[in-house]
Amino acid sequence: MPTSELLSRDAYLLSIELRLFWLIAFIYCLSLVLFIFHLITRQNTAGRAGTTLLWIAAFLHIGLILFRTFEAGRAPFQTLFETLSWFACSVTLTWLYVSGKWKDVHLPGLVISGLALGASLYALFARSPAIDPLSPALDSWWFEWHVVLAFFSYAVFVVSAAIEMTYLLVKPMIRQGLTPYGFTDDMLEGFHKSAFRLVIFGYPLLTFAIFSGAAWANDAWGRFWSWDPKETWSLITWTVFTIYLHSMTIPRFKNLPASVINIIGFICMMMTFLGVNWLAKLLGIPSLHIYAV
Amino acid sequence: MRFKKIPEKIKSPAKQLLRWTYRKLASVTTSIYILSLMAVFYMIGTIFPQGASFSDYEKAGGKAIWFVASFDLLIFFSSPLFLCAALLLLTNLGICCYERYPSLFAKRVFPDKFEPTRSLKLTRHNDQSQTEVSKVLKDEMGFRLVSKDNTWIVMEKGLSRRRLTWLYHAGIILCFVGFIITWLFAFEGSITLKPGKAVEIAPKTTGNLSSLWQKKEPPTEWALILDGFQTEYVETAKLDYPKDKFSRLAIGLGWQLPRYEIKSDNLAPKDWKSSLRVARGVKTIAQKTIEINDPLKHDGYTFYQEGFEQRLKVRVGNNPIPLEVKADEELIVPGLDEPVKFGTVRTGRVTRLDGSVDKIKPYVMARSAGKSALKHEVKPERLDLHGSIELDGAFLTLVGFEESSVISYRYDPGVLVLWFSGIFVLITMTLRFYTGYYFLAYNIALSNGSVFLDVHVRASGLGADTDKLYKRMAHLLER
After folding, report:
1. How many CB pairs under 8 A join A and B?
2. According to the model, what pLDDT value does residue A292 have?
3. Which terminus in chain B has less CB density within 10 A, N or C?
């Protein structure tokens, strides 16, 4: 195929991809509005509708990611545009999977749809969707493993934090004898325990992501650890979740302190993913992970 | 955790303090505090630019110089304060593991009675039930007997949580050993290799331990030779994508279309490869073509493809002696008011947009680097090998270029320990968190003429499912 035709085809495919992504962002937005309505009115109908919209958005998002993979001819998480899309999709899918056990609980969807919408809009408004070839340092078999597992752990930690926030909001209401947002007294503790189980699931994944990152850095840059801001923040996230897991073994830390630590862990994870880029720019700190900025 | 009563003779204040410290360091609560301190220290290290000089820090608008200097905040991760905190964490980890080691093999003591979590009505007679339940739990459900000393019989299934937890904590200690070996013995450097020339590795530094008796490592007894160097590129098209948000939204709504365009210098680097040979005298002892992500390992050293250097030979007008300039540097051309900047010579192979692979006819992009040219954003011009361009009235000809490969090397005996311990930690941690473990105690009791099986089950690990366990147990016992 002549180059001009190739470029026209690529531009056409990109325009389809972008339209689909905007549509998905719009569905996330509708879903968020419904979850806000659910939060204010405590009506489960709004929550259920929000969850249904999340399902639709998730299916479309899987399609979008497969489309991007076909378009780029490689795993679609090289640029920040791609990882933001991947993040939004994986977070939504993880919550929808977990929510299968708590069919009448929709409130965590508020955090999930908010984050998915935020990530999608950030990608669409602030990042370029250009499909660039892999830089030499990224051209490694560690690449897929490292990124997939890191983002899988991120998705799990986000859902865990969303459950934790819901628990902290609902618990005082339950104590007052209310049954808000589809919760009953007997299911609250089980629901809260799922936040812990999610961290238990995500923690080895994050450990593997850090380990594979170190092994990859050793092959590419000749050093397994450089105290690069991104590396250091991933270590901070790991340390905070280590503190959380230890807190869960000590009765006096087990309840509110552990919940707060879990939410701090989520904030650190967001710093590792996005905040560190901003921090590196703000403070002028050079980062080896500059391709992700 | 229980500690023995302090005998009278060691009740001196110093010994009491030591014992108190030891007791504190054996506690998980202390681990939480130390880990919190480490997290704060890591954060500090990301706020201050590590490795920067004080003058650079000051120039960049850095404040509180005395504070930054007092706590070594620009080299925080190798400062005494940070190293002490890391040592404290290691001590805590070591003592916790040491204290918990005996409990891994100690005989477990169980209460005489457990709180039943489920009761099942049995159809057998009381005397048959005992044998039947034991057979079902052991042979069909895979439980193993732990204790039958009391009224309640204790069994378990799955890998011991306590041992797995202990093992991955011990693995983390081993990781620390790897870090310490790296810190004591590792050193690194960089060399520039020209094709065909043998170079001995003469490090300018040494490990932290050997720096006590030597300033630098002795040169190697073997030499490194670059047999060939190759660059590979990939052809790219630039996306003409609007910067303002409304135009981006317009693309999303289908009112505008994105567009790809080909720029004059549209090659992106794909790979750099160096064919390296290690030779002692005339004898080749190792050889490999290295590239990024695929280094050469020899005699404890690892050689990495870091980059490359190019020296361009440029003739000005008819001058028979060409001028030499490094790629990406400026050249003062006699007769021209403003310097000329040359980019990287594109040479080697290129993968085209249509997938075909071509050999590149070498060329470089050149432009005037003066203030006025920069102000007017003068576009660079393409200068082919043996071709000429006119720049500000001067004729420039690229008559040739030389390439050298930049290789970084590192000697780090800690890496092997780290890989081993890291894999060990990952395996034991995965087993601990993902596999299921059941602790089961049961008692068969007769009540109102019926035989009941009271069971107390505790489960841990993501693979454990107590509901499934109860269902299976009921199904097998009812059969």
Report:
1. 166
2. 42
3. C
- B233 touches A at CB < 8 Å: no
HEC profile for chain B? CCCCCCCHHHCCHHHHHHHHHHHHHCCHHHHHHHHHHHHHHHHHHHHCCCCCCHHHHHHCCCCCHHHHHHCCHHHHHHCHHHHHHHHHHHHHHHHHHHHHHHHHHCCCCCCCCCCCCEEEEECCCHHHHHHHHHHHHHHHCCCEEEECCCCCEEEEECCCHHHHHHHHHHHHHHHHHHHHHHHHHCEEEEEEECECCEEECCCCCCCCCHHHCCCCCCCCCCEEEEEEEEEEEEECCEEECCCCHHHHHHHHCCCCCCEEECCCCCEEEEEEEEEEEEEECCEEEEEEEEECCECEEECCEEEEEEEEEEEEEEEECCCCCCEEEECCCEECCCCCCCCEEECCCECCEEECCCCCEEECCCEEEEEECCHHHHHCCCCCEEEEECCEEEECCEEEEEEEEEEEEEEEEEECCHHHHHHHHHHHHHHHHHHHHHCCEEEEEEEEEEECCEEEEEEEEEEECCCCCHHHHHHHHHHHHHC
Best A5, A242, A245, A264 residue to mutate vs chain B (most B CBs within 10 Å): A242
B293 touches chain A (CB under 8 A): yes
Q: Report A:103-142 residues touching B (Cβ under 8 A).
A: 124-125, 128-137, 139-140, 142
The predicted-structure confidence for A55-80, as pLDDT tens digits, reads as follows 999 999 999 999 999 998 888 888 99
Q: pLDDT tens digits for B135-147? A: 999 999 999 999 8
ipTM > 0.90 for the complex? yes
| Residue among B42, B253, B409 with most chain A CBs within 10 A, to mutate | B42
Asked whether the beta carbons of residue B238 and residue A284 sit closer than 8 angstroms, the reply is: no
